[in-house]
Design goal:
alpha+beta; 10 helices; binds FE2/S2 (inorganic) cluster; eight-stranded antiparallel sheet; 384 residues; four-stranded antiparallel sheet; binds fe (ii) ion
Length: 384
Amino acid sequence: MEKLGLLSSVMKPVSSARGLPNGHYIDPALFLEEKRSVLFANWSGIGFGKDVPDIGDAWPVDFLGMPLLMVRARDGAINVFQNTCRHRGMILVDRPSKIRGAIRCPYHSWCYGLDGELRTTPHVGGPGQNSHEAIRTEELGLFRIRSHVWRDVVFVNIDGTAPAFQEVHADLIERWKEFDQPLHHGGAGSSLQLDVAGNWKLAVENYCESYHLPWVHPGLNSYSRLEDHYNVAEAGKYSGQGSYVYEQLKDEQGRALPDFANLSDKWDTGAEYLAVYPNVLLGVQRDHAFAMVLEPVSCERTIEHLELYYAEPSSSSPELDDLRLSNAQRWKTVFEEDIFVVEGMQKGRHGQFFDGGRFSPVMDGPTHAFHHWVASQIEKGRAT
Ligand code: FES
Ligand SMILES: [Fe+2]
């Protein structure tokens, strides 16, 4: 455990604060602590609604070693369960599947409904006896995990202690209420996974600031410069950046992708890129949106899952598929350009004299806001 007082220097005002100590990026013991106090105690992203589009679709997720199962239920809602059979603890679903009828355990065939209720227990009372008084099926449903879907991201609060999602993120939901309309995933070319040799927090920290644009994203910077951006830092809530100069992609015929409905003028050239603490990165623009879930595989490895969404399904404008692909390519380039700095910061944190570093009081406010929030969650966890 780190020396006392190091987190208090993270929580100072931005002009004098230091960043989180190295251990928070390289020490497996602190990774486990953050798993509990940052990722399991808050609303973390684990996946996307678009992966379970139809009733009976089931999608297993390993979230920090915890086996979870997202299931589209009969009422259209997404349920998240612990993916473990209540009999002898077998993993229930080990690959994306279409459940027909019930979730059947492959070991002794106990069957659960899409609502998680235990329905049948074949031969549990002996051959031909499908019940036994000791096995009370009404008490043996799957463990349900608190979940909430927003902007197609499936969020979970594993430990069940966080206030309701709508309460935690009320300000952000209000800020982006104009974008609260149907999102249509762009199809096969609109998904991207990047495997990054870095702690998940570094991806958030880098996403939050536009300071690095001129050097890391020279292409982007040619039309969206440093001075075209503004910081967003809502203490204890969310942070990121906005742009005043978003330009829609156009194809050779001058066609653009359709806009989301009824947006105010601000979004003609405005765009915002915000980190929804702890591990979800969202972006909104007039004609598309994206969501990235950071999967913390281990202390020093993260998989970034990016999905792109549009105002209309691609089936209603197949002639714009090329534009969707170019748009995906544009984001792929940007996120790939960011890999070497995330991985480089990870390597840098093995330098034992690094002291958490400093923040530009002008440029790094959103990144510091994230550090401050993480430190506050760790302290909260240590106090309980
Ligand atoms: S472990 Fe699932 S039915 Fe036995
Ligand atoms: Fe970047």
